[in-house]
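Tutorial, part two.
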Amino acid sequence: MPEERGVIATLIDCFAELPGIGRKSAERLAYHVLRMPREEALAFSAALRAVKENLRPCRTCFNLAEGEECGICRDARRDRTTLCVVEQVRDLLALEQTGSYRGLYHVLQGRVAPLEGTGPETLTIDALVARLRQGGVREVIMATTPNVEGDATALIVVQRITGLAVEITRLARGLTVGAALEQANRDMLTDALAGRRRM
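Running the prediction step on this input gives:
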């Protein structure tokens, strides 16, 4: 019996470490897993293992990929002249859900946040510059979060790519200042894409 309590306590602790999950929610999730049929619980476990073992950053855009390149980069139907720069993969997913953007992406893998120890050198800015120097891209859309850190990140990126043969635009400010892209609804993101402006 003590061993079972130890296993459940560990599972509760694991769930409680997830963002947005408090202790009570973690307990509910842990006991839900306990009540799941064995096959479902093992499938859940296998899915977690597969995510950690099989997903890696796309070699081109740093989106999540199961192979060398993600499905978006491999899709020949995408507009290769437009590149949308986002902070995280979840921002890319939010924009994809609008269905209104058909270009390519570049994921910075974070934003400049000095208090968290994240500087420009920890982002994929060098890879972005190298990508743009290869040619073919005519417009770069800066789609960082509209807050102080997101704006600072955009400014640093713009400084690094100014002088390259690309037009630089920014999502329209129909997005609430300080709001994360992942929290914006589909219509807000569609309007922001349509109303993007030069930087």
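The chain has eight helices and seven strands. In part three we will examine how such features are distributed along the chain.
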